[in-house]
Amino acid sequence: MAELHYTDLGDGIYCIETGLYRHGLAACYLVREGDRVAFVDTGTTHTVPWLLEILADLGLGAGNVDYVIPTHVHLDHAGGAGELMRRCPKATLIAHPKGAPHLIEPSRLAAGATEVYGPAAFAKDFGELVPVPAERVVIAEDGHVVDLAGRRLVFVDTPGHANHHGCVWDERSRGFFTGDTFGISYRELDTAAGPFLFAPTTPVAFDPEAWLASVDKLMARAPRAMYLTHYCRVTAPETLVGDLRHSIRALADLAVAEESGPSDDREQRLRTAVGNLLVADARRHGCRLDEAEIRALLAVDTALNAQGLEVWLRRRARRGAAA
Ligand SMILES: [Zn+2]
Known about the structure:
Number of strands: 13
Number of helices: 11
Radius of gyration: 19 Å
Largest sheet: 7 strands, mixed
Shape: globular
CATH superfamily of the largest domain: Ribonuclease Z/Hydroxyacylglutathione hydrolase-like
Strand order of the largest sheet: 1-2-3-4-5-6-7
Helix content: 25-40%
Bound molecules: zinc ion
Strand content: 15-25%
Distance between the termini: 55 Å
Number of domains: 2
Order of helices and strands: EEEEHEHHEHHHEEEEEHEEHHHH
């Protein structure tokens, strides 16, 4: 790689471009305290060599890494966790109880991702998933404190986007590393009104009620900043959280509106509805990009959201049938 793309955000926090799909889509974070390092999210297996180069650029090495903390096991966040652990011999992996088994034994994760993305795209974009030895994994229950050279990082259980999602509270910056729990906000869609936020309802465990409760849990700490995986830092989260709550509810409502319709092409109808909703929300936010440009920026998320909502509707139907 010719050039390393990472940004010093202050407080020992560096936002790193992972290189997935296009620049500005997926980040991960390096947190530095003295000469000790934690990574929060990792990008994919293909990202890992860059993470090691960035360590070198900061005058550090793999031996300085104490922790690797994926917010959840979706591959844009944790696909590189196994390879990064393999390359950082002193590191401990901190993982959600429901996510850890998939990082120790990633075959189900690989199968699930192959189903979502297709085999060719999976190989190209995500590469091989390296298993993490179980003895190097610490399970983080809600409130688990990670001590990074005296700096407290608190793992907070935040189901909703996924049932195995956690956010990491950094006392030093009074910020949360939010993975996907505080939504997606691409800088290309910023306007005079500030960042545009929407909810990723990615397969397979979208749960709007749990998600809204998790958002309240984050806001209860009065955070100053949210470090989003998609993409980078947003500040004054209290001014953004209304849009996120709206997006979670509107996506759930849009799916429920399709619930009783014919199921054969329902995912396609959901895709159309999700795309239209996101464009309308971006417009309401003051975004003046061409509609085609907005749709192109949100194409991957639109498809994943529709897939996730379809999976959610099927789960609701099963639950209804079981009741
Ligand atoms: Zn995710």
